[in-house]
Amino acid sequence: MTSPENAGSSLLIGGPVPGAARQGRHKQRYGEAGERLVAGCIPVRFSGCTQSAQHVQVCMITTASGNGLVFPKGGWEDDESVESAAQRETVEEAGVRGMLEEPLLGVFPFSGGKHVYDAQGHPVGKCKAFIYVMHVAEELSSWPESKDRQRIWCSIAEATRQCKHQWMREALRAWVRRKGWDEATPTESECATQQQLLQHKVLETKDSGSSALDEQRQQGSPLGDSYSCVGSSSARLAESDVCSFQAAEPCLSMGST
């Protein structure tokens, strides 16, 4: 567990790597209607330091069960600001750090898969996610959940297709609209089809017990430039199932527009 004195510094670029993710809900914040409050980020970087949608790369992670791709997020606790919670969850789950783009992208309600109760102990099953965009400046080779999740970089369009949750797609689209870019993102039916294909591939990978990427790692072979990931997970995704882009250095200009 990260010590209190290192909790804040572990969010900073170049700071110490957090030792473990926070556990439990004894400090969890809840809204007035009993909804669980969570915070997270859409981590992005630019190739060529341009403000063009074609040069954006979006970071996604596999779920803990390995059955889909999501953005990092988790419980907002009562001893931290919403900004710190978003940064903490992002470094714990995705192993990236950077600068938050102001203002807050938005608050997105969703139905959580875990049991959530109001002040009277009644189940409500509702959550509100406070989402920021993070301009990534640092990728860690090891992070608290690196053994449970895989980190993947892909285009905006591919992130929209692959995203497991509709509310996360809406968050990404909200950022696209904020930037004033043409929203050439996939339709919901295209996303559903892509999700079915992805789920099928994940199940195939689990059944086989090993994938081409596992073999590459065991043999020490580098991954191709069109696929960027670090860490491990219970399921591996093939290059063609995730995204295709040319590897590039993170953008050094971190200011928002």
Automatic annotation (TrEMBL):
<keyword id="KW-0378">Hydrolase</keyword>
<dbReference type="InterPro" id="IPR020084">
    <property type="entry name" value="NUDIX_hydrolase_CS"/>
</dbReference>
<dbReference type="InterPro" id="IPR015797">
    <property type="entry name" value="NUDIX_hydrolase-like_dom_sf"/>
</dbReference>
<comment type="similarity">
    <text>Belongs to the Nudix hydrolase family.</text>
</comment>
<keyword id="KW-0460">Magnesium</keyword>
<keyword id="KW-0479">Metal-binding</keyword>
<dbReference type="InterPro" id="IPR000086">
    <property type="entry name" value="NUDIX_hydrolase_dom"/>
</dbReference>
<feature type="region of interest" description="Disordered">
    <location>
        <begin position="1"/>
        <end position="25"/>
    </location>
</feature>
<dbReference type="Pfam" id="PF00293">
    <property type="entry name" value="NUDIX"/>
</dbReference>
<feature type="domain" description="Nudix hydrolase">
    <location>
        <begin position="34"/>
        <end position="176"/>
    </location>
</feature>
<dbReference type="InterPro" id="IPR047198">
    <property type="entry name" value="DDP-like_NUDIX"/>
</dbReference>
<protein>
    <recommendedName>
        <fullName>Nudix hydrolase domain-containing protein</fullName>
    </recommendedName>
</protein>
